[in-house]
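Q: My labmate handed me this sequence with no annotations at all. I'd like to see what the chain might look like in three dimensions before we decide whether it's worth expressing. Could you predict it?
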Amino acid sequence: MSDYFTKSRNRRIDERINHVVTVPKKESSRWEFLRHPLMSLVTGFILTAFVGSYLTNSYRENKEDYDLRLKTIEEFTNMIFARRTTAVLLKSAIKRNAGKEEALLKKHDYDKAYSEWNIKLQTTLFGIRRLSGLSSIRSQFEPMIENQLRGSFAALDKCITDEYDTYIGTQATRQFECDTDNLLKSALACSTAMSNQLYRFFTVYLAKSDADKDKFLKSANLEIIKNCAVTEIQTKMNEP
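A: Here is what I predict for the chain of 240 residues:
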């Protein structure tokens, strides 16, 4: 009898153990909710919206930054070539002996471009500094602009003004031994080199590694020095 009850009891214990092991626990309502297909759809929609918004904002910011670089380069290039072009037209009026009235108009245009250059140059340099990622120190292009480019135009300004004053009779003879045509060619070569190197830096090399940027800037400096070489005559004319 005792064996019968013992076996019966053991059998019931085994059945309870098997029930606990084989029957899975009912998942909590929270997990059931998270695993619902609709929840997956909502989560995917939210992630897609977030990533899409991030990419859109990133693209817009990059485009705005790129457009600002191009605008700064464009304004600077316009300043350079306005100054040289008005000098070419003034030289042409004198060379053609177009008369004092036309020469006066061309000189007025030249003086306007000259003033615009001097008024806006420092602000432009600050813009180039900021776009270079520098806020408190000078960018590598500033010495190139201030030394090579300004030196080239300073000599041209003295020479063309001297030629103009002699032409309209303000002075009897030329004060400087200089060739305006050659100085105009030098100013063109220097202006083209400067604007090209700025454009390449801000549109191609600015996003590259520091090593690539340093390599480019060294190459750009050599190119600008080569095209903006100041002659002995220019050096003498630029002396106070």
